[in-house]
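Incident log, structure service

09:12 report received: a user says their structure output differs between two submissions of the same chain.
09:20 pulled the input from the user's history:
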Amino acid sequence: MNNTPKKENETCVIIGASHAGVNLAFGLRREGWSGDIHLYDTDPELPYHRPPLSKAYLTSGDTIEKNQLRSSESYKSENIALHLGSTVKEINRENKKIVLGNGSLQSYDKLVIASGARPIIPPIPGIETAKNIFPIRTAADINNIREALSKSITKRVVIIGGGYIGLETAASLKKLGATVTVLEREKRILARVTAPEMSSFFQLIHNENGVDIITSKNVNKIEYKNDKNTILCADNTSYIADIVIVGVGIFVNKELAEQAGILCKNGICVDENTRTNDPDIFAIGDCSYHYNPHYDKYLRLESVQNAIDQAKVTAATLCSKEIIYDTIPWFWSDQYNVKLQMVGLSQGYNQIILRKESGEGTYGDSFSVWYFKDETLLAVDAVNNAKAYVIGTKFIKGNLKVNKQKLANPETAFKPNNLLLE
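09:34 re-ran on a clean worker, output below:
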């Protein structure tokens, strides 16, 4: 294999300056890329950490500068050209150029699409004319929410969507003194991503902290009158809100790739080195649709871990040190005093085992949910239980078999050797 870094006259253009794009740019320099690097993003802010947006950033009152991924000086010192507030409107594969929103052109030798995703704003009648309606995606969104909340006397907030982002936001807003109602269309919160036991646990935690979570609620209309929004549901119930937050999912930013003839499905299709069907174009992060050997299927993951890991693979590949992307997904969520760590993908499970470690009540202070398909461990959700997360990761990565009877018994010492199926 040729381990020689690319020539000095080669240019890498990266579309998207969030976790994937920024980590790639600096990773290229570490791997020996000596040519030009151009990093484009529509956001005018210096690239920042996104996970804290719905949590610490929302509640802290800090400026976004405290959450920067890198200092402005670091881009200069690594000779990375950062183009903020810039829109890319076309990829010209034949001439190997991108067309910017102002009509100017930028040539590339290698192009990496790290365009991420954008929030879904559902076509609810009245949503466009209502006031103080916000998604949760950018620093600007959070700044707008903080400003609206500071001006509100009653601080009534309705969150449409009971996924992790909606629940994290609910916990943060409750901390800020808001009256919070979460409306979820499904029969339970987190229905598409976790087991009923986890849904029940988070429903309980939010109820104990004064957040009203109401499921099976389909929002039909939003009316704005007398400085307040009225959210009308299909079952003829209604809810008053000064602020409405929409957290119902995302659209993948794959249009640029599609228009350029790059193969797309549930994201931009890439191989094990993150290449698209164009050998000079790659895709990483939330927008990429890649094959995972461990689960033997194609995935599109919305996580910082995925963005960073794919950036490492792409940086090495572009510098002729090809490695493959083959990692076990992991995620996390912080709500109130609850630290949830998730490893693996639970889709397709047919059995779960709940292991309680300590504390009173149904769940206690520390527990974990283990997802199995027959005898194969697919995923683990660990609540205030780093040990379960670590052990679960070890078992999943190693394709190790779990003794389910011992796992379910809290009297069994929680150690990998004790849980192995002999």
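09:41 both user submissions now match this output. Likely a transient worker issue. Closing.
09:42 reviewer note: The first strand starts at residue 11 and ends at 15. Residues 304-318 form the longest helix (15 residues).
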